[in-house]
Amino acid sequence: MDSARLRNCCLLFLLSVGMGHVAQAETPLPSADQVMSQAEATAKAEHKKILVVFGASWCGPCHLFQKFLDDPQVRPVIEKNFVVAHLDVGEHAGDKAHSNSPGGPALMIKLGGRNVGYPYIVIADEKGEWIVDSVEPVKDGPGQNTGYPSAPNEIDWFMKMLRKSTPDMPPADVKTIRQWLDQHGSH
Questions:
Q1: I need a surface site. Which of 45, 47, 87, 168 has the fewest CB within 10 A?
Q2: Domain for residue 127, yes or no?
């Protein structure tokens, strides 16, 4: 960077700090294709499934699901069994701080998530092919997206998703997830 550009950047930074905020550089989000290609390569190399989480910055249940994934008891279980792929979808058009992952909404629809709400969770194989999702089937009508599994029936559906997608998950791992959701699910 030449000295004039460096000086201008420093002045802009000092001005923004003086105004009480720091200007944030806009970093483009990776596309859904990029996120999924990386997840597929890792899943294939590590013999794991892909846990695809479609969410939005404003979505409370999305933050709760992320808290679940980040919990010190749950994280090792998830990391042992899944490659997690996050895609931003549903962001508001006028929001300057948040945007959709390019191709994210189209992939969500392709994987069965048209008009289902957030978070929409898909478990896919190492090729990115759908195995199961967070839309719990119901009798006589369209299914209901469980999103963050907090109610007993939603936790039951999430556990069925795990059994269907990852039947060889060790019983101790299944128990860890179930106990955490039972304890924290409605919080």
A1: 168
A2: yes
